[in-house]
Design goal:
Chain lengths: 214, 476
Amino acid sequence: MRKASTLFGLAVITAASSSIARAADAPPAAMPVAMSESTPPPKPRPRFEIVASFLPMGFGKFSAVAGGFPVETDASFAYGASLSASYRIIAGLSVGIAPQMIFNVEPKDQMALSWPQSRELDYMARIAYTWRFVDSIGLYVEVLPGWSTISPPGHQATAGFVIAGGGGCALDMTDQLFVNLGVGLQRGYQKVADVNTDGKSDYVRIAVGIGYRF
Amino acid sequence: MRTPLLTSLILLASAATASAQPADSAPPTTEPAPPAIPAPAPPTDSGATVIQGAGSPAAVIVDAPASEPASITEVGVQRLPASAYPEWEIRGLKYGSLWLTFHGMQWPYMPSMTDGRRFVVGISGWGWIDNSYEKFAPWGPNANIERDRIKYWKQQARMLLRITPTYALDRDYFVQGQVELVGTGDQTATRADVGGADTDDLYLKVGKWRSWDVQVGRFEGWEVFHLGMGLDFNTFERQGAVGPGESAYPIGYYGVTDAQFRPSGAVGSLAAHVYPLRILRFEALGTAGSNLTGPVYAVRPVAILDLGWLKLKGGLEYQHIGGLKATDLTDVTSKGLGGAIQFVFLPHIEFGLNGAQGTVVSIDSSGRLSPTGSLTRTSLGAFANVSNGHPRHPVLFGVGSVLTWTEDQNGIAPNPIDKVWLYQGYLAAQYVWQDVFYIKLVGGYSRAHYATAGQDPRIEFDNEVYSLRLRLSFYF
């Protein structure tokens, strides 16, 4: 009898425990189910995007030849703009182009290196990987290789390979509209073609952009 | 027989009780719940009359002994609830710089909701830790250039506990005090240094909620010039490109700020606030006392029109500092005015423009005009913040700039007056975790250009500074 009552007790305990477990596991309310019925599935994110960016370029270095000797000195704070177009080929990975123009490219101290205020034009490709840890927030890294020319007024232009890389964060304002903030490094290998001497710039590249997806 | 069954039933009952408590499965609330309304106190019977032996021929009327007052008085201590941070109109993007400003509204807002008297000690505060780096890079014919070639790592921290005892007479009238106790992480800072004070606010305030109040003590005047998510107090980007070699030049930004901030020394303020409409607010701030320089007095009226999405702010100020000794002829008079316009478009963007101009006429202790201390300062600024508006993972970007022109009265021919302009700009990114923990990264750039008097051509030189700062803040 005692054995039977113990078994009965255990059965009741088991039943109670399972009801506790079910109560804990159960969704708090039926609302998510209702929402899943009424909310349409999220639309796939468009693959094509364009971004217009303002580019503050700081912490720069400018290298050239002065009096026959190579000189590297601090560059003035420069500023520029970029227009990029990218296409997402697989999840997270995008490729595209990102030409940019930078103004006020010059040595900071003309006493150290005389070089006129110049304009730099960079024809860059863009390869980026974006990781979305939240639907409206994307963290990205990017590499931008390309070809660059620096055109000082009244002087021969310098040209050469340029590469930039960095990372940033993109915030979705709507499904299509977003803003981004990025930081990275840019290094130029521009040279004066005839005499094969430097006239190159390096910067910390900041990008403050607004973009749209199609 | 009985024991296992009873045990089973007890367990079953406990389980049913536990599963019936929804709090276990509900998500945690991030904002503190409003305080429970205290039950009205039961009527006391002290001194009541008692009839002994009622109904009998020997009934006697006696006074009951008066009961002792309670040896323990209940005092409410309350972490300030969300309702204490008023939002008569939209303050700004949630977690953004405008949202952290109260635009003149009375706060902490702690009325009695029961029309009865209520005494509550409100507790709130915030703390932050900054890790920052800056590097100066001066150039040009500057005699102090080597002193300016510096780079600097710095960690500084500040924790502030705000205690706000509030005695609400009813829903409308109140008496409120507030003290902000400050701990400073940078142990090289003394009390007299900027940011070294161990007390921020210390004031008393009496008034009627949403109508008027009078405030006296140590506190800040209402903000006019808004800087956005960067250029915080006591930071590198706030200081700008002013190296040790140029620290004598007072070229910092001006935003109707000579009499806005908490004064140092034995100086206090008295302010009257009037709220004729929910959208219209006025402050008349007066300051008087003596600091280390001498006796000081100031007045600073500010008006705010706040439509939520549009905010207009304007202010004037006048400040006079004299000499301590009777023979000291020091007379420094500052005047200024400024205004701001701000827009808020929830939930994604807010931005604003600011402008201010102030003059200083400085007479030294011997009664002569100080040409380098007499200044005209003009500042223009703009800021913009964007947010993803995400309820659980809010991220904000901020950008801002301030440009300040300063001219003194250093009248040395052939080029009289020194002219300096100072640019200060920043980019900021912020993530807020669990509503209370703010992680903010700010990159700053500043450049100062000096054109000094007395030479032909002028001696002109520059300084610039890059800075990076990670601020971790805890608001409670």
